[in-house]
Amino acid sequence: MAAGSTIDALGQFELHPMLGGLGQSLHFSQSPVMMIVASILVLAFLYVGMRPAAVVPGRLQAAAEICYDFIYNMAVDTIGPEGRAFFPFVFTLFFFILAGNYLGLLPFSFAFTSHVAVTLALALLVFVLSVIVSLKAQGAKFFAHFMPAGAPVALAPLLVPIEILSFLSRPVSLSIRLFANMVAGHVMLEMFAAFTIMLAGLGLVGDVLAVGPVVINIALMALELLVGALQAYVFAILTCIYLREAVAH
Amino acid sequence: MARSAVSITRKAASLAMSSALALPLMAMVAPGARAVGMPQLDFANPLVTGQVIWGGVIFLVLYLLLSRSALPKVEKVLATRRLTIENDLDIAHRAKAHADTAVNDLHQARRSAMAEAQANVEKVVEDARLAALRQTQEMNARLAEDIRQAEARVAAARAQALGSLRQIADETAQVLVHQVSGISVPGDVLAGRVNDAATAHGF
């Protein structure tokens, strides 16, 4: 947080134990708390939204159904008919990340997607799942994909390591993308908010100038709303693409 | 769409990354700003690694609740709606088919009624024509009979008149002879003479 003329843009990502000593011993920080809140929100959205179970839906039910259809179509259109089996996983992934991203935008809140440990864990989950599905669906033929079809055999010593590296970089790019986006957004919000406070300390001229960063922060908040949704979408669609490659052959 | 979304995201990500890279610069320029290491990379902190375990558990619970309970609930509602709409459409299609059949029946009935009416009209006209013809024939026959009878009566009257003519001629001849000569000629002689004269004149 900004205090006086000091900007601590990264302090917002520090984890603090919750529930006192119990939280300390269980390593229970505000990050899992927000994960639980996000999960409860997602579940409440579906349970409360679908409670009327009406043939002609109300607004909340329509919203819940649109979300369901959106992820269902994404999974089935991208993965194919096998996508139905992965639909709950993609749905969970998308809304877990989306709720995490958006919750982080609330004041005094925390974005658990801004921690690379969390995003890497999610990316590795997707990666391991896609490898398991690949091995199950294709067997040993899965390893044949590391040698591009039609390429000269002489180039194999060059191509195969590149392909393997490319394949292994998937969880890295998947996790860093989400993590970096969230960190960058929150750091920028913090920086401009700090500028406002610092400028406000410079007297009348500073008070006037301090409006600038506030306006920028409003625009940044709009950008973050877009980025939050987009990153969740990108994470989900890339998961679908990896799973399609796993089941396609 | 996915590809464009990915490219937009990449652009946004690169923008955000460049902003993030600019941060240390900004921190240096800002008076009194201090840069500390990223808390996210402090893996010695058990809270950082602990959130992975907690995250795994929470994600698993969320996944199980969504896949076993919440999402099937939505699916059930959607399936019910699909079924209801299909049933309603079926009913509507059946009703339409019934209506179409009824309209066809109506048209058919109308056509046959028209045909029947036309046939009836033609039959009545034909009957009337035949009746008129029959009446005409009967009338013609009656008239012919009347004419025939009248002619017979005329012929009889003529024959009778012609039969009386001889007697009148006989009596007229007797009266004329008597008045001219004063002689009374016997009737049968006079009749013979009159007969001769009539024969001579072709009566």
TrEMBL record, chain A:
Pfam annotation, one family: ATP-synt_A
SUPFAM superfamilies recorded: F1F0 ATP synthase subunit A (SSF81336)
Record keywords: ATP synthesis, Cell membrane, CF(0), Hydrogen ion transport, Ion transport, Membrane, Transmembrane, Transmembrane helix, Transport
InterPro entries referenced in this protein's UniProt entry, alphabetically: ATP_synth_F0_asu (IPR000568), ATP_synth_F0_asu_AS (IPR023011), ATP_synth_F0_asu_bact/mt (IPR045083), F0_ATP_A_sf (IPR035908)
Transmembrane segments: 33-50, 85-104, 116-137, 149-168, 189-212, 218-243
PROSITE patterns assigned: ATPASE_A (PS00449)
Membrane topology according to the record: Multi-pass membrane protein
Main subcellular location: membrane
The protein's name: ATP synthase subunit a
Automatic annotation (TrEMBL), chain B:
Role, per record: F(1)F(0) ATP synthase produces ATP from ADP in the presence of a proton or sodium gradient. F-type ATPases consist of two structural domains, F(1) containing the extramembraneous catalytic core and F(0) containing the membrane proton channel, linked together by a central stalk and a peripheral stalk. During catalysis, ATP synthesis in the catalytic domain of F(1) is coupled via a rotary mechanism of the central stalk subunits to proton translocation.
Residue intervals passing through the bilayer: 51-71
Entry protein name: ATP synthase subunit b
Family as reported in the entry's similarity comment: Belongs to the ATPase B chain family.
The organism of origin for this protein: Gluconacetobacter johannae
Pfam family, one: ATP-synt_B
GO function terms (MF aspect): proton-transporting ATP synthase activity, rotational mechanism; proton-transporting ATPase activity, rotational mechanism
Quaternary structure, from the entry: F-type ATPases have 2 components, F(1) - the catalytic core - and F(0) - the membrane proton channel. F(1) has five subunits: alpha(3), beta(3), gamma(1), delta(1), epsilon(1). F(0) has three main subunits: a(1), b(2) and c(10-14). The alpha and beta chains form an alternating ring which encloses part of the gamma chain. F(1) is attached to F(0) by a central stalk formed by the gamma and epsilon chains, while a peripheral stalk is formed by the delta and b chains.
Signal peptide start-end: 1-22
InterPro entries named in the record: ATP_synth_b/b'su_bac/chlpt, ATP_synthase_B_chain
Keyword entries, A-Z: ATP synthesis, Cell membrane, CF(0), Coiled coil, Hydrogen ion transport, Ion transport, Membrane, Signal, Transmembrane, Transmembrane helix, Transport
Gene name of this polypeptide: atpF
Coiled coil (residue ranges): 133-160
Protein topology in the membrane: Single-pass membrane protein
Main location class: membrane
UniProt GO cellular component terms: endomembrane system; plasma membrane; proton-transporting ATP synthase complex
HAMAP family in alphabetical order: ATP_synth_b_bprime (MF_01398)
PANTHER family (UniProt xref): ATP SYNTHASE SUBUNIT B, ATP SYNTHASE SUBUNIT B', CHLOROPLASTIC
UniProt-annotated location(s): Cell membrane; Endomembrane system
